[in-house]
Amino acid sequence: MQWIWESFKHVYAVLAVVPIVPFLLVYFGLGAYTGDRKRAFRTAMDVTTALLIGCVTVLFNTIFNSTFGFFGIMLLLLLGGGLLGNIQYRSKGLIDMKRLARAVWRIGFFVISVFYILLMCIGIGKSLFTM
């Protein structure tokens, strides 16, 4: 049973290191299977967000010698959900949780992607200059 967990961790690690690969795999795979490129793009964003959360967490923790990475990302997602929920409640008078969660998750994709690029550049620069 332990080998299953270890295999899962290795596959996740490989996919999370270069998140463009699973994004392209899901996008082109689902796009070819269903023929709906718009749905394939949204699904690829959803899958890649989960991988980016793990990768950005590790990058943040490594660069800043911290353990706050995951909690910081969750804090940003929760704050975004609160702000968007407030906007939705003020405009419509009720909160559609499914739509709110989907919006936060997809906005999170773009925000975390920017953090990924920024932290990757900082990490590469830091490793080059400390040699």
Automatic annotation (TrEMBL):
Membrane-traversing stretches: 12-33, 45-64, 70-87, 107-129
Name the species this protein comes from. Answer: Paenibacillus phyllosphaerae
Which UniProt key words apply to this protein? Membrane, Transmembrane, Transmembrane helix
Recite the lineage of the species. Answer: Bacteria, Bacillati, Bacillota, Bacilli, Bacillales
Concerning Pfam families, the annotation shows:
DUF3397
Q: Key word Membrane present in the record?
A: yes
Keyword Transmembrane helix included in the entry's annotation: yes
Q: What is this protein called?
A: DUF3397 domain-containing protein
UniProt xrefs under InterPro entries: DUF3397
